[in-house]
UniProtKB/TrEMBL annotation, chain A:
GO terms for molecular function: ATP binding; ATP hydrolysis activity; transmembrane transporter activity. GO terms for biological process: cytochrome complex assembly. The keyword Ion transport does not apply. Keywords: ATP-binding, Cytochrome c-type biogenesis, Membrane, Nucleotide-binding, Translocase, Transport. Pfam families: ABC_tran. The lineage of its organism: Bacteria, Pseudomonadati, Pseudomonadota, Alphaproteobacteria, Rhodobacterales. It comes from the Bacteria. The keyword S-adenosyl-L-methionine does not apply. This is Heme exporter protein A. Residues 4-207 form the ABC transporter domain.
TrEMBL record, chain B:
Residues 4-182 form the Cytochrome c assembly protein domain. The chain crosses the membrane at residues 20-40, 60-80, 92-112, 124-143, 155-174, 201-220. It is a multi-pass membrane protein. This is Heme exporter protein C. The keyword Membrane applies. GO terms for molecular function: heme binding; heme transmembrane transporter activity. It comes from Paracoccus thiocyanatus. InterPro entries: Cyt_c_assembly, Cyt_c_biogenesis_CcmC, Cyt_c_biogenesis_CcsA/CcmC. One of its GO terms (biological process) is cytochrome complex assembly. Keywords: Cell inner membrane, Cell membrane, Cytochrome c-type biogenesis, Membrane, Transmembrane, Transmembrane helix, Transport. GO terms for cellular component: plasma membrane. Belongs to the CcmC/CycZ/HelC family. The keyword Cell membrane applies. It is found in: Cell inner membrane; Membrane.
Automatic annotation (TrEMBL), chain C:
It is a multi-pass membrane protein. It holds the Pfam family CcmB. This is Heme exporter protein B. The keyword Metal-binding does not apply. GO terms for molecular function: heme transmembrane transporter activity. It is found in: Cell inner membrane. GO terms for biological process: cytochrome c biosynthetic process; cytochrome complex assembly. Belongs to the CcmB/CycW/HelB family. GO terms for cellular component: plasma membrane. Required for the export of heme to the periplasm for the biogenesis of c-type cytochromes. The chain crosses the membrane at residues 12-35, 47-64, 96-117, 123-150, 157-178, 190-213. Keywords: Cell inner membrane, Cell membrane, Cytochrome c-type biogenesis, Membrane, Transmembrane, Transmembrane helix, Transport.
Length: 210, 241, 218
């Protein structure tokens, strides 16, 4: 029984296939680390898994509403306090308690501060704390440690470890060692644009007319 | 063998290239023939020589609406079946439709001046065409503004759907707002005043001519769009490699 | 749903430019018109219904791009699109929030502005009624325009070009109701049509707007 199973997935960016033949399954407690040079399609793959863009080919098997996505921006409103920001997302995702999340990312002292007064690293911590209040089992993380200092990275690694121990799973695009020694690593190599098989649907204009 | 095979760009280019010269020739013949024949008709006892602009005005107005309908159908085909040529055909048709609307508006103004004594009247038909023109402008502006062709095709498709609903709604709202001076449809079989045959046949011919003209322009413009997309695709592929 | 509505209202009150801006713009329009057409009361009262409706419509337009642009930039829209709340619902709620901070205040304060333009007495209740019935459609159609243009640089001008033609039926029926009210005729017919336009807009546009948002998010 896996939380997320992906078979023969192809994703496209700018109307061209960027990644093809992705194949993996995540059991509860498992993590997958995406590696590869910039621009190889890690973000595109994560957004496709999150359902933000359609897959060109292949199957993504997961329960409905099981994925929480954390991209480059944190979805914070500068005019709201840290606690208000977090409480909003908690209510949208089903009304969980925000205290545990604030504690996990060491944000208790900053809870009343408006988000515009937070530093980049503090904002990121708040954005990551949001993952806990979604209550979703599969976390899709796109470079989660950007602008975090060493202590915060350790906090985040501990939060992620606790999530996996509770039976969650995660797909992470990162080059930083988060202490996930058992994690599988998916190396995304440069994609060579071959001929699109004639019976398959083109990914976009650029493929249809290539 | 199904009709959808022509949605394949390569097949479309081959077929359209073969029929294009014939369509252009037929369009030229019918348009010029219809307009010249129309010009040579006798003067109307009530409207004098001004009636002759009808051979330009009515076909243009007819095409202005029909081209929007064609764009609606093409957009639906794109949104449902994802045939890329269909989206490009809708894009290619829009400027032709906008120009047809403009021709209908301008010839209407020129005709209206001697008939009603005014260049512009907020009559339901005139107003509806002005609104239609605005819809064409918005549709074309959206195509130009969105850089990613896949997004542009989807967004303009949705806009065309919503715009169609509101164009019809506006038509009825405008009718409610002002009852108008404009005569009824020129070819409708109304008791009393009906267009006589000497005007009717040249009008049919110029309608056919305008339709063929649109078809020729549509084919040429769609072929240009396909070539442009092909070029962009090759560049994108090269940048990626 | 409530959480999203309350957040949007809170943001509108805290970051300014919500309630105040549209009303100030409406005031300016109603101040400028007499400078343009002359101070003669009879003439003003004749065109007042139209000016009030066009003014309300333009004031509404002013803040439309804020419906989605900020949420798009800071990533909130990505998160909303993956939330359990359907995106169509989120669109409708955000349009409702926009209406509560622009359309409703405009409708309720319109009688004050009507005084400036010498609107005939019997038209006042119909002015408020037509604006209350009509402005929800303006916000909802605006949300559609904002959704279509959300990813674009300088989308504001394009959005006006896309949205304003869609406002034609609402404007016609709304202003007609006020005009008939001012003339002492029966304004119920245009009001019923206005309500019909608004209801069908509210029923259909969220789907189109959500579809456009999904395209812009991918």
């Amino acid at each position: 029984m896996s939380l997320l199973a992906v078979r023969d997935l192809a994703v496209a960016r700018g109307g061209l296939r960027a990644v093809e033949g992705v194949h993996f399954a995540l059991a509860p407690g498992a993590a997958l680390v995406l590696r590869g040079p910039n621009g190889i399609g890690k973000t595109t793959l994560l957004r496709t898994l999150a359902g933000l863009q359609p897959a060109v080919a292949g199957v993504i098997e997961a329960a409905a509403d099981s994925m929480a996505y954390a991209g480059h921006s944190d979805g914070l409103k500068p005019a709201l306090s840290a606690a208000e920001n977090l409480r909003f997302w908690a209510e949208i995702f089903g009304g969980r308690d925000i205290e545990a999340a604030l504690a996990a990312m060491n944000l208790r002292d900053l809870a009343a501060r408006p988000a515009h007064a937070l530093s980049a690293g503090q904002k990121r911590r708040l954005g990551l704390a949001r993952l806990m209040v979604t209550g979703r089992p599969v976390w899709l993380l796109d470079e989660p440690t950007v602008s975090l200092d060493r202590d915060s990275v350790a906090l985040f690694a501990a939060m992620l470890r606790a999530h996996l121990d509770r039976g969650g799973a995660a797909v992470i695009a990162t080059h930083i060692d988060l202490g996930l020694h058992e994690a599988e690593i998916l190396e995304l190599g440069p994609f060579r644009a071959g001929r699109v098989p004639s019976q398959s649907r083109p990914a976009g204009f650029n493929e249809a007319f290539g | 063998m199904s009709i959808w095979e022509y949605a394949n760009p390569v097949k479309f280019m081959r077929t359209s290239g073969a029929v294009l010269p014939w369509v252009v020739a037929a369009a030229a013949l019918a348009t010029v023939g219809g307009l010249v024949w129309g010009f040579l008709t006798p003067e109307d006892y009530k409207q004098g020589s001004t009636v002759k602009i009808v051979f330009l005005h009515v076909p243009a107005a007819l095409m202005a609406i029909n081209i929007w309908l064609m764009m609606l159908v093409a957009s639906l085909i794109w949104l449902v079946r994802r045939h890329h040529v269909s989206a490009l055909a809708a894009k290619a048709a829009a400027p032709v439709g906008a120009v047809m609307t403009l021709i209908a508006l301008i010839t209407g103004a020129i005709w209206g001046q001697p008939m009603w004594g005014t260049w512009w009247e907020w009559d339901p038909r005139l107003t509806s065409f002005l609104i239609l023109f605005l819809f064409y402008l918005g549709y074309m502006a959206l195509w130009e503004a969105v850089e990613n062709p896949d997004s542009a095709a989807d967004l303009t498709g949705v806009l065309c759907l919503v715009g169609s609903v509101f164009a019809i709604l506006s038509r009825y709202a405008v009718n409610f707002w002002n009852q108008g001076l404009h005569q009824g449809a020129s070819l409708s079989v109304a008791p009393g005043e009906r267009m006589s045959a000497i005007y009717r046949y040249p009008l049919y011919l110029s309608m056919l001519g305008f339709f063929l003209l649109f078809l020729a322009l549509l084919l040429i413009r769609t072929r240009t769009e396909i070539r442009r997309r092909r070029l962009a695709a090759l560049l994108a592929r090269e940048n990626r490699a | 749903m409530w959480a999203l509505l309350i957040r949007d209202l809170r943001l509108a009150t805290r970051s300014g430019g919500g309630f105040g801006l549209a009303l100030a713009f409406f005031l300016i329009v109603c101040t400028l018109v007499p400078f343009g057409v002359g101070p003669e009361g009879g003439q003003l009262s004749r065109i007042a219904p139209g000016i009030l409706w066009v003014g309300a419509l333009l004031s509404c337009l002013l803040s439309l791009d804020r419906i989605f642009a900020l949420d798009f930039e800071d990533g909130s829209l990505d998160l909303l699109a993956t939330a359990p709340l359907p995106l169509e619902g989120a669109v409708a709620v955000k349009a409702l929030a926009h209406w509560l901070v622009t359309g409703l205040p405009l409708a309720l304060s319109a009688p004050v502005f009507a005084l400036l333009l010498h609107l005939p007495g019997p038209a006042y209740p119909w002015l408020v009624a037509s604006l209350v019935l009509g402005t929800p459609a303006l916000s909802m159609l605006g949300a559609f325009g904002a959704a279509v243009t959300v990813g674009l640089r300088r989308g504001g001008l394009l959005m006006s070009l896309l949205v304003l033609p869609l406002y034609v039926p609402t404007l016609i029926f709304g202003a007609e109701a006020v005009r008939r009210g001012a003339a002492g005729a029966d304004p119920v017919t245009p009001l019923v049509f206005l309500a019909a336009v608004t209801l069908s807009t509210l029923a259909l546009t969220p789907f189109a707007a959500a579809a456009a948002l999904r395209v812009n998010l991918r």
